[in-house]
Design goal:
This protein is mostly helical. Helix content is about 70%, strand content about 0%. It comes from Leifsonella bigeumensis. It holds the Pfam family Ribonuc_red_sm.
Length: about 325
C-alpha cells in the first residue's frame, strides 16, 4: 500500500528522504518546545486560590478533573489508533514526541492537584460521576474502541473511514474544541491578575496542543487526498455531524463547569467561544461555518491564533486549500 497509511512493521524504517515535510517540521518544533512542569513555581498562586470564590475554585477543580484523565485517553488514541496504522517514519517521530507531551501534560495537572488545596478523590471521581463529563468521555471511548478492541483493516474503505473518524474524535473535537474551551476558562483568571503562574503553565500546554492540532488536521487531509474513495458527501456529512454533536455536549458540560458564572465569565460566554472554535475547525476541514458567531474571547489570540493553521498549511508542500476540499468533496474552482 502506498501513501501514509500502512501496517507493515518493516516499512517506514528509513527517515530520509522525508516524504511528509510538514510532519518533520512539526517534530523539530515540538522538540524545541520541550518543557517541564516544575520549571514554574505554582506555589506562588496558592494565596490566589485560597481567596477565590467557591465557584471559581470549582471551575479549576472541574477542569483538572477533565483534563487529567483525558490527556491519558489521548495517549491511548495515539498509541493504539494512529501510530500502528501509519508508515511514515517522520510521522512516527512526531507521534512519539506527542505521546511524551501528553504524559507531561498529565504530570502538569498532577502538579496542580498536588499544589492547590484540591480534593483529589473528588476531582478524580468527577469524570465518571458528572453526567456531562462522562458523556464526553464515552463519546471518545466509542471511537477509540473501534481502533483498539475491534479489528480494523486499514486496506479497506471502512477501515480508512474508521481511522479518519478516530482522528476527528480525538484531534478535532477533543483537542481542537473541548480542550481549547477549557484553556480559555483556565486563562481567564490571569485576565483578572489571578493564578498567573498557572496561566504560564497553561500557555505551555496550549503551545504543544496547537502543534497536535496542526499534525492531526494535516494527517486527516493527507489521508483524504491519498484515498479519494473516502471523499463522499455521505462521509463528509457524518464528519460534520460529529462536530455539531460535540458542540452540544460541550454546552451541557460548561453549564456544570460554571453553573452560576464567575466575574466576567459564564456558560453562555464560553459556549459562544465553543461555537467560534467549531466554525474554525469546520473551515480547516473545508466545510462552511455552521454558527457564524464572533469570538467573544479575542484576548485569547495572545495565547493562540486559530487562523494560524490556514497559514501553516498554505506554507507546506501539501496544499491546505486543495486538501480541505477533499473532506467535503468540493471541487477546486
Amino acid at each position: 500500500m502506498s501513501g501514509i497509511l500502512g501496517t507493515g512493521v518493516q516499512e517506514g524504517l528509513l527517515l530520509k528522504p522525508v516524504k511528509y515535510q510538514w510532519a518533520m517540521d512539526l517534530y523539530d518544533q515540538a522538540v524545541a518546545n520541550t518543557w517541564f512542569p516544575n520549571e514554574i513555581q505554582l506555589d506562588q498562586d496558592i494565596a490566589d486560590f485560597k481567596k477565590m470564590t467557591d465557584e471559581e475554585r470549582h471551575a479549576i477543580t472541574f477542569l483538572m478533573s477533565y483534563f487529567n484523565p483525558n490527556e491519558l485517553l489521548v495517549n491511548k488514541a495515539l498509541a493504539f489508533g494512529v501510530y500502528p496504522y501509519i508508515n511514515a517514519a517522520e510521522c512516527h517521530l512526531y507521534l512519539a514526541k506527542q505521546m511524551w507531551e501528553e504524559a507531561n501534560h498529565c504530570m502538569s495537572f498532577e502538579y496542580v492537584l498536588e499544589t492547590f488545596p484540591i480534593d483529589r478523590e473528588a476531582a478524580y471521581g468527577s469524570h465518571v460521576e458528572v453526567p456531562s463529563m462522562a458523556r464526553k468521555e464515552e463519546f471518545q471511548v466509542k471511537f477509540i474502541k473501534r481502533m483498539t478492541e475491534e479489528t480494523l483493516d486499514i486496506t479497506t474503505t471502512k477501515g480508512k473511514q474508521d481511522f479518519v473518524r478516530n482522528l476527528v474524535a480525538y484531534n478535532i473535537i477533543l483537542e481542537g474544541i473541548w480542550f481549547y474551551s477549557g484553556f480559555m476558562v483556565a486563562l481567564s483568571f490571569r485576565q483578572r491578575n489571578l493564578l498567573r503562574n498557572f496561566g504560564s503553565l497553561m500557555d505551555w500546554v496550549i503551545r504543544d496542543e496547537s502543534l497536535h492540532l496542526k499534525f492531526g488536521i494535516n494527517l486527516i487531509l493527507t489521508v483524504l487526498e491519498e484515498n479519494p474513495e473516502l471523499q463522499t458527501p455521505e462521509f463528509a456529512a457524518e464528519i460534520k455531524q460529529m462536530i455539531l454533536d460535540a458542540v452540544e455536549m460541550e454546552e451541557a458540560y460548561n453549564q456544570d463547569l460554571l453553573p452560576s458564572g464567575i466575574l466576567g465569565l459564564n456558560a453562555t460566554y464560553i459556549n459562544q467561544y465553543v461555537k467560534y472554535l467549531a466554525d474554525r475547525r469546520l473551515e480547516e476541514l473545508g466545510f462552511d461555518p455552521e454558527y457564524k458567531v464572533s469570538n467573544p474571547a479575542k484576548w485569547m489570540a495572545t495565547a493562540n491564533d486559530t487562523y494560524e493553521l490556514v497559514n501553516f498549511f498554505e506554507s507546506t508542500n501539501t496544499s491546505y486549500e486543495a486538501n480541505a476540499k477533499a473532506v467535503t468533496g468540493k471541487k477546486s474552482e
